[in-house]
Amino acid sequence: MNSSPTFFDGGCTCRQVRYRLNSRPLFVNCCQCRWCQRETGTAFALNALIEADRVQLLAGEVDVVDTPSLSGKGQRIARCPTCRVALWSNYGGGGDAVRFVRVGTLDDPDRFPPDAYIYTDSKQPWVVLPPGKPAFAEYYKASELWPAESLERRTALVARTSPR
Ligand SMILES: [Zn+2]
Ligand SMILES: [Zn+2]
Predict the structure, then answer these.
(1) Residue 101 confidence class, pLDDT cut points 50, 70, 90
(2) Three-class SS of residue 66?
(3) pTM over 0.85
């Protein structure tokens, strides 16, 4: 870990929007649900979960689009206003505390492989999951799966963002 960078840059295809993650994400989900399949036009979505205040806009602004979601609570997808590439989203009507950053928009997406596979019930049959990685028919409990450091960050985030 010694030579690991402490930030990770990404952006849209037309390069109008550039952003920086100011630390590693909390966790990386590979979601095989039909909704993610439709939104990406492919077999799954790869989302790096990270505190919103660790995502810094370096250039441009995002256009936030209200979009239906599997839970029924909706999601807000932040897109480049020009090329419309989706950069991150927020789920569950829970505000902007945690962003689901689309790993494929990072300059070095290879750095964040999935920590867990979710909604594998609707996995496209040709997708072969690597053995030994956590996989769930639907979702999981973060308290049972996330590393301790990420759970501590989540606790700190809740303390910071909860209304008093
Ligand atoms: Zn763009
Ligand atoms: Zn999904």
Answers:
(1) very high
(2) strand
(3) yes
> Could you tell me if 117 and 130 are in contact, meaning their C-beta atoms sit under 8 angstroms apart?
no
Structure tokens given for 164: 């008093």
CA–centroid distance, 17 to ligand 1, in Å, is 6
Rounded CA-CA distance 58/61 in Å is: 9
Distance 16 CA to ligand 1 centre (A): 5
Question: For residue 36, how far is its CA from the centre of ligand 2 (angstroms)?
Answer: 4
Among the bound ligands, name the one nearest to the CA of residue 91.
2
Beta sheet of 8-11, edge-to-edge order: 8-11, 18-21, 55-59
Q: pLDDT tens digit string along 4-49?
A: 779 999 999 999 999 999 999 999 999 999 999 999 999 999 999 9
Give the CA count within 13 Å in the CB-facing half-sphere of 60: 22
- Compute the distance from residue 2 Cα to the ligand 1 centre, in Å: 33
Q: What is the mean predicted confidence (pLDDT) over 135-151? A: 96
Listed in sequence order, the residues at least 6 apart from 46 whose beta carbon sits closer than 8 Å to its beta carbon are 28, 29, 30, 31, 102, 103, 104, 109, 112, 114
